[in-house]
């Protein structure tokens, strides 16, 4: 059985499986958005929805200093919430995300960097593997691949500060560490012989209880299988819903009423996200648990930035554990080469920030120090993709859950999860013992701010101010048409979901950051005795807003004449 699955997974990786292929599933959020012919009041025009936001973003440059950010986000770890936070920051300070092109595009770029500038540190096998990564990203000649290549050209041309896409590199962690800064740098493309001082990169890695993640993956990918099957049955759609500028009959994740079993490329889904699978379906899924190394989708979490659980744990616990400095850095701090946790602590910078979903609030407090942000910058208004209420581990057959836990312990997923939690503990201890940060009090402030901005930013009348501001910035609707249920349908239908360098940006995400900054500033300046009564943005005195970079991309709320 293992041999059969290995063949199937290899076929999926190469994109030739006869069942729903990985590329169809990974890009189910925007694969209908190719250039297509639209009809509007009798006039025909070509509208490339994937590139509709180029004019609004290609000339933007950061208005605030800060390191680059690499967000290692395996699927189904609850990453969409942190994605909201990062996208809000991205819009408010012009910290553009890397433009989405094809799966693992940033990993392919890292492979190019290593082959061009790090050959002396590579073994023959490593060089061969990296070469395959590069050639695989360029070998297809389908219309989809040509469109992806065009988007990749945009991705490399437009300077970016954050990588947010699902990247699963599955290469040695030292190769990732040495060459990651090059992913953000375009100087080598212009002059391969150059030795630039590469940008500093802050890394974030998010984890979730492995059993909960595996069960969530079962339902998510199962519903994706249903979407692909329904789309194939409908065939190519010609109609247009002009109100939403979306293809008529767009299939929404979880909206299909059929509860018939669906055979996908990785497992057989029992067909209903609201019910527990029968014992036989659950046991078959667990026995052949479809986790793979390096492929976006159901993947080992450690394969984002390492090629084994052991190397990932070493990176999480000790960071730079060898003596090779980062490629082309002109100045290397001694603590960056001695590999000790104490050495990293001396810099106040453990190597990689770990976000533990089950400890999200204290993770976000620690994150804001890792990135040098304000507490207001890590406030989010609402969780994305929180619409699925699928059964949890406690509801599943006990035998299947026990076997699932056993397999996840054996393959290193729990070891990586526990190491991530320990790294978070170490970071919080450092903040409290060295910087005298009162973490529990910051969590309390976080909860107050989040409660207040959530109520304010989900008020329809108040949210319209943010929508008008973003409309004025000429941001187009995101081409995904909310197919993966990122938000409640009303927000997509009312035009609150935008494309910002091809990433999803919601008006209420921007609102959360703006309003949290106003409340925090008002309280700190003594305008209110506590955060509970601190002024919202429209109540903040103009003198406090003027020349304040935190409000540069927030509504003006000008009083009526």
Q: What best-fitting shape do the alpha-carbon axes yield?
A: globular
Widest β-sheet, arrangement of strands: 4-3-5-10
Structural category: alpha/beta
Helix count, DSSP H or I runs of 4 or more residues = 22
Number of strands: 12
- The end-to-end span amounts to 74 Å
Observed structural traits:
four-stranded parallel sheet, two-stranded antiparallel sheet, alpha/beta
Which helices and strands, and how do they pair?
Layout: H1 2-14, H2 22-26, E1 36-40, E2 43-47, H3 54-57, E3 68-72, H4 79-93, H5 105-117, H6 124-136, H7 143-157, E4 162-163, H8 173-183, H9 187-190, E5 201-207, H10 210-234, E6 240-241, E7 246-247, E8 262-263, E9 268-269, H11 279-287, H12 309-318, H13 335-338, H14 341-346, E10 352-356, H15 360-371, H16 398-410, H17 413-433, H18 439-457, H19 460-472, H20 489-493, E11 497-500, E12 503-506, H21 507-524, H22 542-545
Parallel strand pairs: 3-4, 3-5, 5-10
Antiparallel strand pairs: 1-2, 6-7, 8-9, 11-12
């Amino acid at each position: 059985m293992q041999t059969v699955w290995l063949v199937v997974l290899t076929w999926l990786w190469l994109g030739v499986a006869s069942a729903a292929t990985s590329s169809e599933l990974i890009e189910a959020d925007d694969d209908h958005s190719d250039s297509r012919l639209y009809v509007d009041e009798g006039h025909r025009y070509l509208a490339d929805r994937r590139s509709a936001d180029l004019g609004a973003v290609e000339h933007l440059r950061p208005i605030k200093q800060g390191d680059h950010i690499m967000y290692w986000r395996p699927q189904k770890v609850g990453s969409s919430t942190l994605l909201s936070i990062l996208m809000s920051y991205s819009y408010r300070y012009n910290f553009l995300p890397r433009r989405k092109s094809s799966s693992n595009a940033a990993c392919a770029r890292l492979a190019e960097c290593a082959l061009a500038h790090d050959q002396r540190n590579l073994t023959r096998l490593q060089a061969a593997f990296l070469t395959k990564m590069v050639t695989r990203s360029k070998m297809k000649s389908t219309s989809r691949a040509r469109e992806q290549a065009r988007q990749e050209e945009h991705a490399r041309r437009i300077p970016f500060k954050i990588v947010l896409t699902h990247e699963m590199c599955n290469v040695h962690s030292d190769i990732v560490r040495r060459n990651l800064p090059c992913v953000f740098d375009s100087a080598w493309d212009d002059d391969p012989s150059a030795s630039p001082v590469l940008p500093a990169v802050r890394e974030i890695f998010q984890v979730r209880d492995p059993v909960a993640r595996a069960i969530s993956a079962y339902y998510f990918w199962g519903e994706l299988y249903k979407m692909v099957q329904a789309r194939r049955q409908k065939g190519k759609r010609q109609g247009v819903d002009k109100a939403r500028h979306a293809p008529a009959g767009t299939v929404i994740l979880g909206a299909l009423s059929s509860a018939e079993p669906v055979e996908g490329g990785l497992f057989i889904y029992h067909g209903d996200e609201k019910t527990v699978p029968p014992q036989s379906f659950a046991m078959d899924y667990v026995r052949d648990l479809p986790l793979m190394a390096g492929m976006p989708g159901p993947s080992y979490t450690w394969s984002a930035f390492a090629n084994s659980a052991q190397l990932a744990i070493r990176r999480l616990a000790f960071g730079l554990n060898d003596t090779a400095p980062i490629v082309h850095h002109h100045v290397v701090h001694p603590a960056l080469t001695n590999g000790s946790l104490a050495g990293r602590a001396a810099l106040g910078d453990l190597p990689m920030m770990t976000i533990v979903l089950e400890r999200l609030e204290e993770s976000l407090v620690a994150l804001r120090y890792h990135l040098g942000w304000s507490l207001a910058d890590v406030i989010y208004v609402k969780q994305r993709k929180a619409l699925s209420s699928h059964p949890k581990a406690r509801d599943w057959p006990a035998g299947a859950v026990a076997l699932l836990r056993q397999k996840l312990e054996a393959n290193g997923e729990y070891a990586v999860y526990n190491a991530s939690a320990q790294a978070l503990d170490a970071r919080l201890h450092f903040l409290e013992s060295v910087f005298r940060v009162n973490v529990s009090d910051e969590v309390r402030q976080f909860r107050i701010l989040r409660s207040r901005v959530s109520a304010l930013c989900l008020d329809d009348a108040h949210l319209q101010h943010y929508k008008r501001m973003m409309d004025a910035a000429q941001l187009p609707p995101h081409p995904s048409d909310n197919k993966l249920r990122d938000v409640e349908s009303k927000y997509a239908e009312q035009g609150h979901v935008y494309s910002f360098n091809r990433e999803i940006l919601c008006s209420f995400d921007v609102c959360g950051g703006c309003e949290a900054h106003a409340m925090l500033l008002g309280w700190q300046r003594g305008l209110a005795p506590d955060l509970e009564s601190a002024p919202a943005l429209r109540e903040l005195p103009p003198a406090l807003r003027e020349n304040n970079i935190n409000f540069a991309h927030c509504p003006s709320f000008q009083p009526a004449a």
